[in-house]
């Protein structure tokens, strides 16, 4: 647990599968661990993160146990939590709209909760929507907090107005059949609202980037681009909003132009599947993390170098050697002892090496 005074100086926040919230200070190249219970627990795995306030002094964590925990970046500690039941699976989206909390889980249950302190104990949601099973992502429109988009595996892109009806205001239509007249499968992995526009962009598990315009009567993508051969798992908007950076299951990163659908360039990738990407709102910087447990900060359009690379370690007791390390050391020691013993036995059986004299060949005598 890091000191509370240093929490506000962290530049990047990362949630882990062991329930730890990590704050990384890029200038000092240090990482601090924060937990709600004082120790890491996989039951509290973090599956969703969002800011709880516009001044970025509060972070909301959606955890595997159904809790949404509140963390104060000023005080460096968890201030409270709220149980948000309903549906099955982990959180696939988390957002804050005024005093309300928006959650969405795998099974497609989207709920709006009153998150005021006075009514935080109430277990009844203000609104419940069924957005379809297999949800991979729920994303809030930053310009219109009451608008959210959802999508997933065999769950087409939909846009919902949480102040309107229980039907989506936009429902995307699948693309036309392929050249073999076969249906194209749907797998929306990530979604973003394009700034100063009604359009949305998605990335799919079939390595496609698509742009949708709800004003289009066809409801199909108005632009489509493909990258690589592997499923795209994460996406973020560039600071200008004219391109996106995507990552796939093989750790590859690429920037795709949204005006022409062309590849602008590739960045130095990860050693494992990409789990999350986030661009700085104004600077050409990108933060990435994945299964290799390394946080990287890239400078966009400069793939040769990294601004920062951090490999945070899980908290361990000081001066404590793990049982696996002890067993490994004992095994190597026993192998060395056996090798030395065999060498000594071999030398004893052979005795002291004798000097070999070269025999002289007898001279031949003439008859």
UniProtKB/TrEMBL annotation:
Compositionally biased intervals (Basic residues): 355-367
Domain of life where this protein originates: Eukaryota
Keywords: Methylation, Nucleus, Phosphoprotein, Repeat, WD repeat
UniProt entry tagged with the keyword Repeat: yes
Region (Disordered): 302-367
Pfam family, one: WD40
Subcellular location: Nucleus, Nucleolus
Coiled-coil blocks: none
GO cellular component: nucleolus; preribosome, large subunit precursor
Gene Ontology BP, a term: RNA metabolic process
SMART domains hit by this protein: WD40 (SM00320)
Family matches, as Gene3D superfamilies: YVTN repeat-like/Quinoprotein amine dehydrogenase (2.130.10.10)
Complex and partners: Isoform 1 interacts (through WDR repeats) with NVL; the interaction is independent of RNA or pre-60S ribosome particles. Isoform 2 does not interact with NVL. Interacts with MTREX; the interaction dissociation in a late stage of rRNA synthesis is required for appropriate maturation of pre-60S particles and depends on the ATPase activity of NVL.
Protein name, UniProt field: WD repeat-containing protein 74
Species classification: Eukaryota, Metazoa, Chordata, Craniata, Vertebrata
């Amino acid at each position: 647990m890091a000191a509370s005074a240093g929490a506000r100086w962290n530049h990047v926040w990362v949630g882990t599968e062991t329930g730890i919230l990590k704050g990384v200070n890029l200038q000092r190249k240090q990482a601090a661990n924060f937990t709600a219970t004082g120790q890491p627990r996989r039951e509290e795995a973090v599956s969703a993160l969002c800011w709880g306030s516009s001044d970025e002094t509060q972070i909301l964590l959606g955890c595997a146990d159904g809790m949404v925990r509140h963390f104060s970046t000023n005080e460096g500690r968890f201030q409270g939590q709220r149980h948000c039941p309903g549906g099955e699976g982990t959180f696939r989206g988390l957002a804050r709209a005024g005093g309300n909390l928006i959650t969405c889980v795998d099974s497609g249950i989207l709920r709006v909760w009153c998150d005021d302190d006075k009514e935080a104990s109430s277990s009844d949601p203000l609104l419940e929507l069924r957005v379809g099973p297999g949800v991979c992502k729920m994303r809030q429109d930053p310009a219109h907090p009451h608008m959210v988009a959802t999508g997933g595996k065999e769950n087409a892109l939909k846009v919902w107005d949480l102040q309107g009806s229980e039907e989506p205001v936009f429902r995307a239509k699948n693309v036309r059949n392929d050249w073999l007249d076969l249906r194209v499968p749907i797998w929306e992995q990530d979604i973003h609202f394009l700034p100063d526009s009604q359009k949305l962009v998605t990335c799919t598990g079939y390595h496609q980037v698509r742009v949708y315009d709800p004003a289009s009567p066809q409801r199909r993508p108005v632009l489509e681009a493909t990258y690589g051969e592997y499923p795209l798992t994460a996406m973020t908007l560039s600071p200008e909003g004219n391109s996106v950076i995507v990552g796939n299951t093989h750790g590859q990163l690429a920037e795709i132009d949204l005006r022409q659908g062309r590849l602008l360039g590739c960045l130095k990738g990860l050693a494992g599947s990409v789990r999350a990407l986030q661009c700085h709102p104004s600077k050409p910087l990108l933060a990435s993390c994945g299964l290799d447990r390394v946080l990287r900060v890239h400078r966009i359009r400069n793939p040769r170098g990294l601004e920062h690379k951090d490999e945070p370690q899980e908290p361990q007791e000081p001066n404590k050697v793990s049982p696996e390390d002890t067993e490994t050391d004992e095994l190597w020691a026993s192998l060395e002892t056996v090798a030395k013993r065999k060498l000594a036995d071999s030398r004893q059986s052979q005795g002291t090496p004798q000097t070999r004299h070269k025999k002289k060949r007898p001279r031949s005598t003439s008859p």
